[in-house]
């Protein structure tokens, strides 16, 4: 057991794992993710495609190989950090051994003054003095390591518990999440003067399972907490609501464009509504949203056979094909309808992730504080006997700062 | 007033700085190096009104497009390299490679891939988490540029004392840049992603390459502290890490698609 623990305490293992993880995820970013298996064999050839699929580079972040490397990295970081903490942290509370490693010809008071100026905390223990500074800088790597461990745990919990639902709602529509009813009261699409999007704001009425009604607003970058999750402003869509009259079928349709209607034994396919129809290179499109040339394309199908097609214009009549087809569609009305795309996300790793980021952030800031130094000194025949331990800073450098350049 | 006037003027000052540093290396004259470094401070001061005007034009901190990103790195880089010169007394070789890299990045602002048009940010970019994310990451990256310059200089200088100095400079700049990069690229970036897209981490190529860059700089620090690696081996890691950083900055945007494809 000790052998296993010792092998995980190796810093060489940590560096090797960091390199292997970097290589694996680096390759992963170069390969398109989550495609059908045929995609890889067609694009990379039979052999390489199969290698990619076998090693799961098509989904590298959830591959077995990545899982194994990350698990090893987790254990390695945990063992290294715990052994470091057990070795180093108790020393902050201990008085260093009385073993002189330098002699100074400087008065005790002047040395004390220099230590204070350099930010040392000084304690008197009997006839000796113990001065210390930079404890936070010394524990900063441990804090970052604990943060990394929490991030791995948080990431795992997130992956196991992540649940999301996407809703596309127009004003008045209702959706349900976690026994909570959401009704879209208003959707605002703000634009800059040059027509670029400035903001999307969804105003909601929220009815909880006890019937209590509250109001909430969701904006990009400003999610709304609902139940055990959050709602994000995810996307928007502009669709057209159309009113069509089918002469010969004695039927009127009111509803969204781009849909299929069944009536009178026909399957009627409606295209997108084009407020300003233009045709270029055989492709139909709308030039802007101003209703200058409103049109819609309609197909009539019966028993899986196309019976007729018809370009329907609001401002003039255009015959269907075949011309003697007995149903004539007419545009009676239209209006744009804005749909908001709301994403509901529920996951249980959020707390661990926030803690991990807090620890990594805090540890990073503490890394920049003054290096750890501990000094024990005592008077000895008119001189100062000093024991000094300094971490990542030469003793001469710190001594010169404390004594103001006065040499021993 | 047009902010690009200040940006263009600054670019010419950078070119002059690079030229003077080259002359300083060839002629081995320290006063020329001193003039070049003072000009770098002038470049920072000259660009500052441009940054403010652009901020007023877009009604946001100007950090939301490729143009603003590369010019911000140049701006903050000029100040940091100048301060490093004052505090750490960097020599003309390190100054030359640092300013060449900064100028090359700055030059991208005049290329077709970076439109200089001042446009307010799209909704997803209107977040102060984004400002913290980008600015901290860029400050860290400027220190990484300094470490790269010191690593290159390590292989150029001949004397052991100079090599020792380059090694120390390389280490110090990574030591300062690493916390900034960690906070900016990873911590603030993850928080912004959570507020914008509902996930801290999505394995987007830019996120992944930021992590790779971070892991390589971590490997640099670990190998130095625990395995006592110094000198040549450390310099090689610093150069590899810098190349990963440049790929994260540009390569990902233009070669791989993902959430960061706008900037």
Task: Please tell me about this protein's structure.
The complex is a heterodimer of chains A (408) and B (263). By secondary structure, chain A is of the alpha+beta class. Chain A has 4 domains: 2-72, no CATH class; 89-158 and 357-403, no CATH class; 163-238 and 341-348, no CATH class; 241-334, no CATH class. In chain A, 33% of the residues lie in helices and 38% in strands. Chain A has helices spanning 2-8, 11-30, 37-44, 46-54, 64-88, 108-117, 135-161, 350-367, 395-403, and strands at residues 102-104, 121-125, 128-133, 163-169, 174-177, 180-191, 197-207, 213-219, 224-226, 229-247, 251-256, 259-263, 266-274, 277-280, 283-286, 295-302, 305-313, 328-346, 373-380, 383-390. In chain A, a hairpin with a 2-residue loop joins strand 9 and strand 10. In chain A, helix 2 (11-30) packs antiparallel against helix 5 (64-88) and helix 3 (37-44) packs across helix 4. The longest helix of chain A has 27 residues, at 135-161. The mean pLDDT of chain A is 92. Chain B has 263 residues and is an all-alpha fold. Chain B folds into 2 domains: 1-119; 122-263. Helix content of chain B is 78%, strand content 0%. Chain B contains 8 helices and no strands. In chain B, helix 1 runs antiparallel to helix 4, helix 6 (160-197) runs antiparallel to helix 7 (205-225) and helix 6 runs parallel beside helix 8 (231-255). Chain B is flat, with a radius of gyration of 18 Å. Chains A and B meet through helix 2, helix 7, strand 7, strand 10 and helix 8 of A and helix 6 and helix 7 of B.
């Amino acid at each position: 057991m000790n052998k296993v623990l010792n092998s995980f305490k190796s810093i060489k293992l940590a560096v090797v794992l960091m390199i292997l993880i970097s290589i694996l995820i680096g390759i992963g970013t170069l390969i398109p993710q989550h495609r059908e298996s045929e995609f890889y064999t067609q694009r990379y050839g039979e052999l390489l495609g199969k290698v990619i699929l076998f090693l799961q580079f098509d989904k590298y972040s959830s591959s077995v190989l990545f899982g194994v490397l990350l698990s090893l990295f987790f254990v390695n970081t945990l063992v290294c950090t715990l052994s470091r903490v057990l070795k180093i942290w108790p020393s902050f509370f201990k008085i260093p051994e009385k073993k002189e490693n330098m002699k100074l010809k400087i008065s005790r008071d002047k040395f004390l003054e220099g230590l204070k100026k350099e930010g040392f905390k000084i304690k008197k223990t009997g006839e000796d003095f113990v001065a210390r500074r930079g404890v936070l800088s010394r524990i900063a790597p441990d804090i970052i390591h604990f943060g990394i461990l929490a991030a791995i745990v948080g990431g795992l919990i997130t992956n196991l518990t992540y649940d999301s639902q996407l809703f596309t709602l127009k004003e008045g529509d209702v959706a349900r999440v976690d026994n909570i009813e959401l009704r879209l009261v208003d959707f605002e699409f703000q634009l800059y003067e040059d027509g670029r999007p400035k903001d999307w704001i969804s105003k909601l009425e929220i009815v909880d399972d006890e019937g209590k009604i509250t109001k909430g607003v969701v904006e990009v970058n400003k999610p709304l907490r609902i139940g055990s999750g959050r709602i994000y402003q995810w996307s928007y869509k502009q669709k057209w609501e159309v009113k069509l009259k089918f002469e010969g079928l004695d039927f009127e349709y009111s509803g969204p464009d781009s849909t299929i209607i069944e009536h009178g034994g026909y399957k009627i396919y409606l295209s997108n509504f084009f407020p300003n129809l233009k045709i270029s290179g055989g492709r139909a499109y709308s030039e802007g949203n101003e209703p200058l040339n409103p049109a819609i394309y309609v197909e009539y199908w019966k028993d899986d056979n196309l019976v007729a097609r018809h370009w329907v214009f609001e401002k003039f009549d255009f015959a269907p094909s075949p011309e003697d087809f007995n149903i004539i569609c007419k545009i009676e009305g239209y209006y744009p309808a804005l749909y908001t795309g709301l994403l509901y996300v529920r996951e249980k790793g959020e707390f661990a992730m926030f803690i991990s980021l807090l620890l990594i952030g805090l540890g990073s800031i503490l890394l920049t504080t003054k290096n750890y130094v501990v000094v024990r000194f005592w008077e000895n025949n008119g001189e100062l006997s000093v024991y000094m331990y300094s971490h990542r800073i030469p003793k001469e450098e710190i001594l010169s700062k404390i004594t103001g350049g006065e040499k021993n | 007033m047009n902010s690009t006037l200040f940006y263009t003027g600054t670019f010419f000052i950078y070119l002059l700085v690079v030229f003077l540093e080259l002359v300083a290396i060839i002629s081995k004259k320290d006063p020329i190096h001193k003039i070049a470094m003072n000009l770098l401070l002038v470049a920072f001061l000259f660009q500052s009104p441009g940054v403010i005007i652009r901020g007023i034009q877009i009604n946001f901190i100007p950090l939301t497009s490729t143009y603003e990103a590369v010019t911000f790195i140049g701006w903050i880089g000029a100040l940091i390299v100048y301060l490093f010169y004052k505090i750490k007394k960097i020599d003309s070789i390190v100054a030359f490679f640092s300013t060449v890299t900064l100028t090359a990045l700055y030059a991208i602002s005049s290329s077709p891939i970076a439109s200089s048009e001042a446009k307010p940010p799209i909704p997803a970019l209107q977040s102060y988490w984004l400002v913290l994310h980008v600015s901290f990451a860029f400050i860290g990256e400027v220190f990484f540029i300094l470490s790269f310059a010191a690593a290159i200089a390590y292989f150029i200088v001949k004397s052991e004392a100079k090599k020792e100095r380059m090694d120390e400079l390389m280490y110090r700049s990574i030591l300062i840049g690493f916390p900034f990069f960690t906070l900016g690229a990873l911590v603030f970036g993850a928080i912004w992603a959570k507020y914008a897209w509902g996930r801290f981490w999505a394995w987007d190529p830019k996120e992944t390459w930021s992590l790779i860059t971070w892991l390589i700089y971590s490997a640099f620090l670990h190998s130095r502290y625990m395995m006592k690696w110094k000198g040549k081996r450390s310099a090689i890691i610093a150069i590899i890490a810098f190349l990963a950083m440049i790929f994260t900055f540009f390569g990902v945007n233009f070669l791989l698609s993902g959430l960061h494809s706008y900037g």
